Amino acid sequence: MIAVRRIAAAAALAALAGISAPSAFAAARAADDAPFLKEIHQGNLAEIQAGEDAGKNAKATCVKTVGATLVRDHKKLDADVKALAGKLGVTLPASPSEEQKQALAAVQAKADTSGYDSAWLTTEDKGHVATLKLIDHEIDTGSNSQVKAAARAARPVVEGHLDMIRDCKAELNPT
């Protein structure tokens, strides 16, 4: 119902401004998906920073490898998000969220200790699970077909990261 009101309001404003209703409809649909683009962008920024940190501070080879993969893949994903946001007129935040910054700081506090790798993997596991939920929500409820397509394209990459993280955890802590 809220989305219908937003679309109707956007169409009315567009008519007053002399813009065609179809482009107002597209703008309203993009606005509904703007929070997803903003959150996923912040997630990409956080993953890039975390991956770079693992490259500097991890002891285990698998953690360094996962970190390098996150940097590479999240830079690519973020380039796609920034291009789509620019096309849709969505302004993206300049940095990760405060919660993401705090999570990275907690892991960084363990640098030069035996607990760093485990803390890094645990944080990354939680982050990737949350990102998959965010992506699935967008796929299920998103309005803009381009944003939904981007979410569908990102899902296997993020899922692959989670698999790598869990494989590394298993390698470091065999049962």
Q: How much strand?
A: under 5%
* End-to-end separation: 51 Å
By CATH, the superfamily comes out as Ferritin, core subunit, four-helix bundle
Please identify the oligomeric state.
single chain
CATH fold group: Ferritin
What string gives the helices and strands in order?
HHHHHH
Biggest sheet details:
none
Q: How much helicity do the residues have?
A: over 70%
| Integer count of domains | 1
CATH architecture name: Up-down Bundle
Number of strands: 0
CATH domain class: Mainly Alpha
Q: Over the alpha carbons, how many angstroms does the gyration radius reach?
A: 19 Å
Notable characteristics:
175 residues; mainly alpha; 6 helices; 83% helix
Q: How does this model look, in words?
A:
The protein has 175 residues and is mainly α. The chain has one domain: Ferritin, core subunit, four-helix bundle (Ferritin). It is 83% helix and 0% strand. Helix 5 packs antiparallel against helix 6 (145-172). The radius of gyration is 19 Å and the shape is elongated. The model is unreliable at 1-28 (pLDDT under 50).
Tell me the layout of helices and strands.
Layout: H1 2-17, H2 21-57, H3 61-88, H4 98-108, H5 116-141, H6 145-172
Helix pairs in contact: 1-2, 2-3, 2-4, 2-5, 3-6, 4-5, 5-6
